[in-house]
Amino acid sequence: MEHSVDTGLPREAAWERTECQALLVELQGLRRAMADCEQRLADWIAAVHPSQAASARNLAHYLAMRSVDARGLQDRLARLGLSSLGRAESHVMANLDKVIGLLHVLLGRPWQALADEPAGFRLGRALLEGQAQRLFGPPPPGRRVRMMVTLPAEAAHDAALVDALVHAGMDVARINCAHDDAPCWTAMAAQVRRAAAVAGRPVRVLMDLAGQKIRTGPVAPGPQVVKLRPQRDAFGRVTAPALLGLRARGLAAPVHGAQLTLGVAPEWLARLHPGDRVELVDARGAERRLTVVDERSGGVLLQCERSAYLTPQTRLRLQRHGAQPRDTLLADLPERPGRIGLQRGDTLRLLRSGLGHDASHGSDEGRVRPAGIACTPPEVLGRLAKGERVWFDDGRIGGVVRRVAARGVDVEITDIAEAGATLGADKGINLPDSRLELPALTPKDLADLDLVAQQADLVGLSFAQGAADVRALRAELARRGAGALGLVLKIETRRGFEHLPEMLFAAMAGEAAGVMIARGDLAVECGFERLAEVQEEILWACEAAHLPVVWATQVLEGLAKTGRPSRAEITDAAMGERAECVMLNKGPHILEAMHTLDDVLRRMEGHQSKKRPLLRALKAWGPVPG
Hints:
The chain has four domains: 11-119, no CATH class; 129-212 and 439-611, TIM Barrel (Alpha-Beta Barrel), CATH 3.20.20.60; 226-329, M1 Pyruvate Kinase, Domain 3; 339-430, M1 Pyruvate Kinase, Domain 3. The model is unreliable at 1-5 (pLDDT under 50). The protein is 33% helix and 23% strand. It is an alpha/beta fold.
């Protein structure tokens, strides 16, 4: 093919010379912007661990590249068959320089590769893999992505369960310090160490600090009422009677075979024998008759053919031929958790203390006092402002602050199910618009760190909001002689996401650090419609910093809890290939979830590596017909 003498381009493509020149000018300007950003962030970069210096520079270059809209530039580069910089995260400057060099060649100009690139194509990937190995340990054979599993409380004493988790491929065991206690965590960690030694493979222990979780306070308990009901078929016919166990009040042991066990006066209980008839009038005024069918260790078993609502005021009467009837009251009824009923348009007052309560009504049915519930920690209320959003219970109920007063903060309920919903105690509160300025570590976290420093390989910083939070945790670990402990930043708030770059630089002050995308709270804080976009941006920034990511929250949740996954869950699990570790929560079918996740990840790793599709030969369709 004949070429023009001065450009090296085919004659029919000579018109591209102008485009190449324009692109070269634009890319050189972008390179200068990257260098300028590196200079502006020089203090942050200087503070990172020496092993992280190249990664910190690469992150600075990535932040500069992503500060402009480059979509038009990408299209123009792609038309020339050049890299459009779309997969440059781990080696930003090297990718840009390669394109600049190719443009020089196309224009017939001399080019000498620059030597100040912090991470080349292979080095960038190697830095990320090395960081993942330092944090999570080596990957299992045939699978790049590790599996993290949240341990249930039973793991403290159930050796067979922990053995099964390790055998199924658990690479990191997660202990949630928001639940259970220090002796339980110590026993869990010991079980993991023992099982890993038996299996002959490393398993890391992550201990997650509880953090500054904002929650609803206690709610006045609901009425003590239980329903006793028989089993019925589709036509309402009784197929099995209701079985009630009675034991001496104050004892905890259930009566074997009973659906429900309640307490009664011991002297009354001692009079019961099989065949005796017991009568009652339930909470609705319905008369019911029960028959004693068996005497068992610790009590007796009665059966009833009809439903009954029982309360502490329900009186049982023993009817025996030729004897005076004898009565007793029921005891030891379970206390029902209190719930506050809410509808769209209701006002919910957030209080500093006290029991939560429903709205109260006057004689004219007008509202005298709105529903109220305490907020913990109470100092949060002083930082709320009118117009800010409030979400409760993982986003099930949403509202807007309408008034801030000394007696509390009034929230108008604006987002709720059409039929309304109820709100209970100890439910999460998300405040995505509020500047809370709460300390990163609670007094509980500081106490828990004493054990974390002794037992854990990694520590999770919950609700990380800024670089100061990361530095505070590093300082506390250093005081306990655990400065080298691996650190996982949990990004679960809007503010944490917005301050991600500064937190990444702060995390790189240590040798081993990573990020967990805690998608539950993050979806509520940023909006469910933004979650897909937000999690992608976190993945990209972490790859630029060569920091490994944990893909977390509700991965194969349905499968782990019920034994059946949804189609959407499988697709979401496949997305976990983009991270270096995937977290599964506990559930009765956790082993099935682990086997499924292992299979999905191994399959996807043949097709995808981070953002880069892999062109593995497709064998499903057979040869193309000739």
